Amino acid sequence: PRPAVSVLGLGLMGTALASAFLKAGHPVTVWNRSHAKTGPLAAQGATPAGKAADAVAASDLVVVCLLDNGSVREVFETLGDRVAGKTLANLTNGTPQQARELAAWAAEHGARYLDGGIMAVPHMIAGPHAYVFYSGDQEAFETYEPAFAALGGARFTGTDPGFAAVHDLALLTGMYGMYMGVLQAFALARTENIPAAGLAGPLTEWIGAMLTGIGQDAEAIDSGEHLTDVSSIAVNRAAIPNFTATFRAQGLTTAFFEPLQELLDRAAEQGHEADGLSRLVDLLDS
Ligand code: NDP
């Protein structure tokens, strides 16, 4: 029989997680701060719990997905030692530091702790492209790996409970950086009445082509050998003023490109003009 799972938090994501566990045949108990959200899951076969403590008592595996780790801490405090002997898998987005603190709290209260970063939006859960980064108690991960498979892939990143958050934040950092550029691209096109739909195809193709260089950047960063035969700091540094000048002329902000110009200037001053853009990673310390 599949192990029982309790899900705390039935927002968009928690609901998708609970539903996936149900579909995979797990007995599922659900709790949410506003009780009404348990309704649709109860209709699918889940047992609604009136209190978080009742949900925790119902299953050895407790999956948590709330707004943020402040909320998680609040709910955990109401549970106290009732988490003893349980595995808490907290899939709420947070910082590595928060994950380490929650792991310490769980240890003090006799629970095993796993932190997780969900690399999917709710409708992707249980589909072929969804996966979750986990970190923390490796034995707990191995025990429940087959259960986690109900959500999609399960990737263990290390016994340091902060590692899932590091991986999650790193991937999302790449995404947000790309997204900022995409928005600026649409804004620029719009200043000349080019509809977004007209730019979407070429933009997708171009970003896709550029993404194929990530592996080469990674090699340069790990080896510290940034000399390039692709595109140098010097040539990029010469090009960036064309962007900022155009943005200014078209009435757009230059705010997102000024830091790039500053990094390129600094890299050049330090004698790295022949290196590739991967060199800039060394200049990002605060
Ligand atoms: P929602 O806003 O849909 O749900 C938030 C949930 O948190 C609700 O169940 C809400 O309860 C609960 N909550 C908020 N504050 C408290 C509190 N103080 N005490 C108890 N419960 C509280 O968010 P999502 O489900 O979309 O996201 C949940 C987590 O999953 C977030 O950390 C998010 O970053 C992460 N995530 C979400 C993704 C997405 O695409 N949606 C993708 C990857 C990760 P109530 O119903 O009572 O308000």
Report what the structure shows.
With 286 residues, the chain is α/β, with parallel strands linked by helices. It has two domains: 5-166, 3-Layer(aba) Sandwich (Rossmann fold); 213-283, Orthogonal Bundle (N-(1-d-carboxylethyl)-l-norvaline Dehydrogenase, domain 2). It has eleven helices and eight strands. Strands 3-2-1-4-5-6-7-8 form an eight-stranded mixed β-sheet, sandwiched between helices. Helix 10 runs antiparallel to helix 11. 33% of the residues are buried. NADPH dihydro-nicotinamide-adenine-dinucleotide phosphate binds next to helix 1 and helix 4. Keywords: Oxidoreductase.
Mean pLDDT across all amino acids: 97
> How would you describe the oligomerization state of the chains in this entry?
single chain
CATH architecture of the largest domain: 3-Layer(aba) Sandwich
CATH superfamily annotation of the largest domain: NAD(P)-binding Rossmann-like Domain
* Backbone CA Rg: 23 Å
In CATH, the topology of the largest domain is named Rossmann fold
Unreliable sequence segments: none
